[in-house]
Write a structure and sequence with these properties.
Radius of gyration: 26 Å
Largest sheet: none
CATH class of the largest domain: Mainly Alpha
Distance between the termini: 50 Å
Structural class: mainly alpha
Helix content: 55-70%
CATH architecture of the largest domain: Orthogonal Bundle
Length: 303
């Protein structure tokens, strides 16, 4: 007869699961697999359609595996001489807009965590009001024009620098950090700028990574601000180029020769555009994913 020690008995007590726990775990894993499949299938379908032969696409035979092999749509997209310029513009808007948003939002949210800050309540109320009321498109355009931002780089990055919801999330996250850290820094002679950039922000990596991802995706997919505020096509983001190409194809395949028109189906071209657009985001996401869930949950809850 085997005699179990205290540590073995304790270990068995911890890891032994009941039937209900096992059933719940299996059910939860099954649901997660279904959710993953529901999100992965459209991506694989788009990828397969973008590489498939027009004959199979028209017949509806393409699911998640390409039928035939056709890269004419990609050739046409990458043959555009302005493609790299538009990509570079989008990178500048995404990176610059994200950096400005993180810095400005942090500098606004941090004072709202200080209990004796005199304007704390007034600023919070003003931010809450902006969450329910907006000035509208025309007043916003007039403001941009009066400040001389029309057709400039800044018109693409400054309007999204501060958002009320972002500020409230940042404030809540900062409030959860130990107060002893800031109090010790004050005793050592540090001011609020040093505390924010050398203590608070280094401890807020999950939050910063999460909102960086939100901001990058928003700037990358954005086209409306460029459509309204940018008149110089050389400053357009990639979404504007893809929009123009798609409109040209829809308007009697304008810009394509007869041979190209036979090879490039509109459905194939649309899916190729989707792949060209989302690839950079797919490469960025894995580097920020580990902070994503933690940043959203901790930043949205007050302990």
């Amino acid at each position: 007869m085997k005699v179990y020690g205290r540590e073995e008995i304790f270990s068995m007590a911890i890891y032994k699961k009941s039937f209900g726990e096992k059933f719940f775990e299996i059910a939860l894993n099954s649901i997660m697999v279904l959710i993953m499949a529901s999100m992965l299938y459209p991506l694989l379908n788009v990828l397969a359609l973008s590489f498939s032969d027009v004959y199979y696409v028209v017949r509806g035979d393409v699911k998640i595996i390409p039928r035939g092999f056709n890269i004419e749509a990609y050739k046409y997209v990458f043959s555009q001489s302005s493609l790299l310029l538009y990509y570079w513009n989008t990178v500048k808007y995404a990176v610059g807009g994200t950096v400005i948003m993180l810095i400005v939002t942090s500098m606004i949210a941090y004072p709202l965590t200080i209990s004796d800050f005199p304007l704390k309540k007034i600023i919070t109320i003003m931010f809450i009001i902006t969450m329910f009321f907006s000035g509208g498109l025309i007043p916003t355009y007039i403001i941009m024009r009066n400040y001389g931002l029309i057709n400039t780089y800044w018109v693409m990055v400054l309007p999204g620098a501060v958002a009320a919801w972002h500020t409230m999330i940042f404030r809540t996250f900062f409030q959860q950090l130990p107060k002893d850290l800031t109090e010790s820094a004050y005793i050592d002679g540090a001011n609020d700028i040093i505390i924010l950039f050398k203590i608070i922000l280094p401890l807020s990596k999950p939050l910063l990574a999460t909102f960086s991802l939100f901001s990058i995706v928003g700037h990358w997919n954005g086209w409306f601000n460029a459509f309204i505020y940018l008149t110089d096509s050389k400053k357009h983001p990639i979404q504007m180029l893809l929009r123009e190409l798609l409109i040209n194809l829809q308007m009697s395949n304008q810009g394509l020769s007869q041979i190209e028109s036979e090879l490039i189906n509109l459905t194939v071209f649309k899916n190729a555009l989707i792949i060209v657009t989302i690839l950079p985001i797919l490469f960025v996401y894995p580097f920020l994913q580990k902070y994503f869930a933690k940043g959203v949950l901790i930043g949205s809850l007050k302990g």
